Amino acid sequence: MKFPHLRQDFAASLVVFLVALPLCVGVAVASGVPAELGLVTGIVGGLVTGFLPGSSLQVSGPAAGLTVLVFEAVREFGLPVLGVLVLATGLIQVLMGALKLGRYFRAISVAVVEGMLAGIGLVLIAGQLYSVAGMEAPASGLAKLGGLPGMLADAAGSAEALASIGLGAGTIAVLVLWRRLPKRVRTVPGPLAAVALATLVTLVFGLPVATVEVQGLLGSLQPPGMDAFGELGNVAVLGTVAAFVLIASAESLFSAAAVDRLHEGPRTEYDKELMAQGAGNTVCGMLGALPMTAVIVRSSANVQAGARTKASRVMHGAWLLLFAVLLPAALAYIPLPALAGILVHAGWKLIPLREIAAMWREHRGEALILVVTAVSIVAVNMFEGVLIGLGLAIAKTAWEASHIKLEVIDKGAGPVQAYLSGNATFLRLPKILDNLESLPQDRPVELDMSGLHHLDHACRTALENWAERHSATEPVKVTTP
């Protein structure tokens, strides 16, 4: 039989489609682009990336993790430039995969990646709370957080805002409580059930809440024109492309590692997966759609639904295409507060509270990097926040790598014995010199450096100068590494 697992893959594809549909629409609306563009990215994630080698069971599409960055890019550069940003991201990912750089993303500090996701989650939650109330959110992360009390005060005096908040809160409650319902009920994915119930309540009670604006699949496509490509000379645009590449690639490859732990099938080939993601983003860019990443929510649903091969994710893309072609008008009935509620819930899951607590108990330096990265993203912006986190991680690693130990043995008579071990770098040079200069000046010294794994030029020069000064009164015998 040519497709021995067709039945399992067909059933899994329907589950993934039902999970992906509300998330594709919600991410697009929260990103400030037409809802149909989220479906386009989901379709490309299934029909293009889904066909390619790399990871057999993870599913790609628009991700909540890029929502904040896409929204800021569209607001700053305009929707026509989005396609250029995504196209450039895809081409860079393909090149990186061809150069076999995919595996090196696994070397990025986990604290930085989780801090990045936590920062995104905080900004996403803060921004979508305004959408839950049917109000426009401020531009910056700090303004979003600082404006929440005022937003709630304004909402308290508006019947429309209170109805919108009630619908959004109900959506979040359904998502939180869904996993506690009987297994038979949970065959319907939580996000789909939450949106369907919110839509039904809105129609039955005639709630005065905003709904999705429908433009049609073809009408929403925004292929970039030549004028948009001229923006690649803008430093800010290039910085946004770099942020897209870093976040999309890291999230996809970390997702691949997580999905590999969920099944016993073929392991991910990281370089091929990075090229597959790049191919998908290249197509999305040419269509002017949202950037894609591998999404752990859809991927885990795919594995848990019994998928055995990549056919399930390809078919899920086909179901999204059929929906976009045959039933686009159905999107117009979906209330925006329900989509905002889904993204508030998704943002909360991006904040790794358990991991922070575990890191604080075992690796406080890593926990500090995570928190600083998240706070920097909220206070400044996505790209600079990630750079701050990476800088802290590099500085911490350099400091730990320069660990050095000086053991002094003074028997009261004869030469003082000093043993240096570890890594002697300029970072620890002040400590080394302070300890050596505190040795008795009227006694000979035997300095044994054979235990050093590394001795940089600055330390070697400083130690030679110290030995020369000390030898002016008493001799210094040096054993070099």
Automatic annotation (TrEMBL):
InterPro entries recorded for this chain? SLC26A/SulP_dom (IPR011547), SLC26A/SulP_fam (IPR001902)
Q: Where are the transmembrane segments?
A: 77-99, 111-135, 155-178, 190-212, 232-254, 318-348, 368-395
Keyword terms, alphabetized? Membrane, Transmembrane, Transmembrane helix
Topological relation to the membrane, as annotated = Multi-pass membrane protein
What GO biological process terms does the UniProt entry carry, in alphabetical order?
Answer: transmembrane transport
Q: Does the keyword Transmembrane apply?
A: yes
Q: Which GO terms describe its cellular component?
A: membrane
| Cellular compartments annotated | Membrane
Q: Write down the superkingdom of origin.
A: Bacteria
Domain SLC26A/SulP transporter, residue spans: 6-373
- PANTHER family in the record, alphabetically? SULFATE TRANSPORTER
Query: What name does the UniProt record give this protein?
Result: SulP family inorganic anion transporter
